[in-house]
Every structure is written in structure tokens, then in C-alpha cells.
């Protein structure tokens, strides 16, 4: 068991804070980095793991607490893993609808069999800013990209992400179902094991 009762989440996203607190349970109190700083570190890494470590170290530095960071996105097979670490700013920071429109346009004419994709989540937990041994947990959620949006739930690329085991899009799942199946849920399950909270 890690020797702490609270940690700071390297995110200003209240939805993500709530989701991760629910997944971690009551043993650890999760606080937002927004309580300590409004500045976001520059994500200069070339992988989800590098960016997660960067964000975790920054959050630990500004808060003085152990820190957890999540870097996640969508990797499309036919696009060589793009949009990848640039998922949130795929359409130059114009938001989810623009990102989805760009992805659909880019995949125009790509047959169903070649539209495989996975949501990726890399979690990095550091005990302090200079922790030489961050805990890294990854989760992958395999599916494929639809030819048009379906569903009203979720956010980001959820309306375009087909979930084979449920025969629907990610945006057609209830929040509770998504929290059991998603890339973030899979990475968090590994983290809970590492922290002996499972």
C-alpha cells in the first residue's frame, strides 16, 4: 500500500476528477491541481506515457503531494496511430465536433475492416516531483471507427467509437457501463492492484 491518504490529480477537468475518485474509492482523497495552480504544463512528450509523467511531476511540484496524471486519446490503425497524443487538439483546438468531423473526413472511403482503433489511457503516479520510479499503468479499449456519429452520452470521440462487446457506440453506453469497460477503467484497475486497493 502506498503511504498516503490523498493525492492531486493533474487535471482541471471536474468530470475526470469525479470519475477517478469513484474508481479509487474512499481510501484516497483526490484533489484537483486547480487548487494549487491554474497553469498547465506544456505536453512536450512524444507518447501518452511521457506526457502523463510530465503532468504528474508538475502537479506534485506545485502541490507538494503525490500526484496522478492521465494522458489519453484515440489511436486509429489506418492512420498509423493518429490522432494519438494530439487527440484533443486534432482539429487545431476547435473542440469535439470539429475533431470528429476531421476524423470522419480523413477516413472517408476506408472500408469497415480497416477502421480498427483503440482508446489509450496512460496513468502515471509519482510520490513526489523527482520520483525516480513512477508507477505507470496503461489501459487499451479496442473497437473501430463508425462512418457516422451515434449516441448522446460521453464526450470526445465516443460517438464514433464502436464497442464490439456491446454492439453499440461508446456514446450509447450508460456512464456506469463506460466506467467498467473504458481504457481509463482498465488502467485504473491496474493502479488499484498496484496500490493494493483492489
TrEMBL record:
GO BP: nucleotide metabolic process; purine nucleoside triphosphate catabolic process
Oligomeric form and interacting partners: Homodimer.
Family assignment from sequence similarity: Belongs to the HAM1 NTPase family.
PANTHER family: INOSINE TRIPHOSPHATE PYROPHOSPHATASE, INOSINE TRIPHOSPHATE PYROPHOSPHATASE/HAM1 PROTEIN
Annotated protein name in UniProt: dITP/XTP pyrophosphatase
Co-factor binding comment: Binds 1 Mg(2+) ion per subunit.
GO cellular component terms attached to this protein's record: cytosol
Active site: 71
Cofactor: Mg(2+)
Top EC class of this enzyme: hydrolase
Listed GO MF terms: dITP diphosphatase activity; ITP diphosphatase activity; metal ion binding; nucleotide binding; ribonucleoside triphosphate phosphatase activity; XTP diphosphatase activity
Keyword tags: Hydrolase, Magnesium, Metal-binding, Nucleotide metabolism, Nucleotide-binding
Binding site for Mg(2+): 42, 71
Catalytic activity: XTP + H2O = XMP + diphosphate + H(+); ITP + H2O = IMP + diphosphate + H(+); dITP + H2O = dIMP + diphosphate + H(+)
InterPro entries: dITP/XTP_pyrophosphatase (IPR020922), ITPase-like_fam (IPR029001), RdgB/HAM1 (IPR002637)
Residues that, per the record, bind substrate: 11-16, 72, 155-158, 178, 183-184
Keyword Transcription: no
Amino acid at each position: 500500500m502506498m503511504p498516503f491518504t490523498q493525492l492531486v490529480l493533474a487535471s482541471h477537468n471536474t468530470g475526470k476528477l469525479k470519475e477517478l475518485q469513484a474508481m479509487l474509492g474512499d481510501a484516497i482523497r483526490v484533489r484537483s491541481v486547480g487548487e494549487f495552480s491554474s497553469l498547465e504544463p506544456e505536453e512536450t512528450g512524444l507518447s501518452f506515457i511521457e506526457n502523463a509523467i510530465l503532468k504528474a511531476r508538475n502537479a506534485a511540484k506545485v502541490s507538494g503531494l503525490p500526484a496522478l496524471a492521465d494522458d489519453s486519446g484515440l489511436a486509429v490503425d489506418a492512420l498509423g496511430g493518429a490522432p494519438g497524443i494530439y487527440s484533443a487538439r486534432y482539429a487545431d483546438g476547435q473542440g469535439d465536433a470539429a475533431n470528429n468531423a476531421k476524423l470522419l473526413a480523413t477516413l472517408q472511403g476506408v472500408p469497415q475492416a480497416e477502421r480498427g482503433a483503440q482508446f489509450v489511457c496512460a496513468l502515471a503516479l509519482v510520490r513526489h516531483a523527482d520520483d525516480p520510479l513512477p508507477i505507470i499503468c496503461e489501459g487499451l479499449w479496442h473497437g473501430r471507427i463508425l462512418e457516422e456519429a451515434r449516441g448522446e452520452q460521453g464526450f470526445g470521440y465516443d460517438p464514433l467509437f464502436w464497442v464490439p462487446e456491446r454492439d453499440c457506440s461508446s456514446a450509447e453506453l450508460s456512464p456506469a457501463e463506460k466506467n467498467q469497460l473504458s481504457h481509463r477503467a482498465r488502467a485504473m484497475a491496474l493502479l488499484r492492484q498496484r496500490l493494493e486497493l483492489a
